[in-house]
Amino acid sequence: MFSNIENLTFVSTGIMTAVSAKKPFIRKTNGFIFVKTGSMTFHFTNKSITVNTGEMIFIPIHETYTRTICPDTKCTYMSIRFLANIENPEPTLYKLDGYYDKDYVCNHFADLWNMGNSADRYKCYSLFYNLLAYISNNENQNYAEKKKFEIIKPATEYLKSHIFDTSLKVDHLHYLCGISDTYFRKIFIAEFGTTPQKYITAKRLSQAEAIIISRNFDSLSDVAYSVGYSDPLYFSKLFTKKFGVSPSKYK
């Protein structure tokens, strides 16, 4: 959204105490709102966004919203109101965990702009563009990760329907995506935090546990087969390793 911002002009900035506003408000400028203390929730037409201490929200010009404040806390915020040409603007929450100038911007940006000299105002533009660079970089990284996940989507969609099939072969999943097994595993681990084999095993054993608890089965061999294991002994070994007791004792 901020990869190609044009015609930037600051309108105003300041530090304020937030209050709830039930009457709809229509923004006359674009705005970044940094929450310094407390939290506030913005209610838009199709969604609500809660902004906590240390976080920031972007609200585009002409956006309509109301705002509620947690009644048990005092909420203060710093806002930067500006005009610019922005591609596909929409209300967006930013965590800012890795933004190294966050505290400086929150505490000094308004004073630099409102009470500083011309050099301080240039510094405000520099700080603002650094913030945009941080946001844009994160958005590009998230987009890249999303594109990577799209690569393995044929396999993840296949798993949704076939994860309990005894014929499922983990080392064949990458063929569905047209990539190497090594690259497939790399993307899968980045997305799910574990290997494809461990992911499948965890899902199967969780399903087996639910079946055993329900007592809706004839034999443990049936349980093993229903979750994708044609070898009951191998199933028992995996189950015991995860739950600390054999399926028969768990029953």
Straight-line N-to-C gap: 54 Å
Total number of strands: 9
Name the beta content range: 15-25%
Helix amount: 40-55%
Instruction: Say which CATH homologous superfamily of the largest domain is assigned.
Output: Regulatory protein AraC
What is the architecture of the largest domain at the second tier of CATH? Sandwich
Widest beta sheet: strand line-up: 1-8-3-6-9
CATH class membership of the largest domain: Mainly Beta
Oligomerization category of the chains in this entry: single chain
Molecular shape: elongated
Mean pLDDT: 89
What low-confidence regions span 5 or more consecutive residues with pLDDT below 50? none
Q: Strand pairing plus helix content: what structural class?
A: alpha+beta
* Separate helix tally: 9
- The CATH topology name of the largest domain reads Jelly Rolls
Number of domains: 2
Succession of helices and strands: EEEEEEEEEHHHHHHHHH
Report on this structure.
The protein has 251 residues and is α+β, with helices and mostly antiparallel strands. It has 2 domains: 6-142, Sandwich (Jelly Rolls), CATH 2.60.120; 153-250, Arc Repressor Mutant, subunit A. It has helices spanning 102-115, 118-151, 153-162, 173-177, 181-192, 196-214, 220-226, 232-243, 247-250, and strands spanning 6-17, 21-26, 30-37, 39-43, 48-52, 56-59, 64-69, 76-85, 92-94. A 5-stranded antiparallel β-sheet has the order 1-8-3-6-9, with helices on one face. The mean pLDDT is 89.
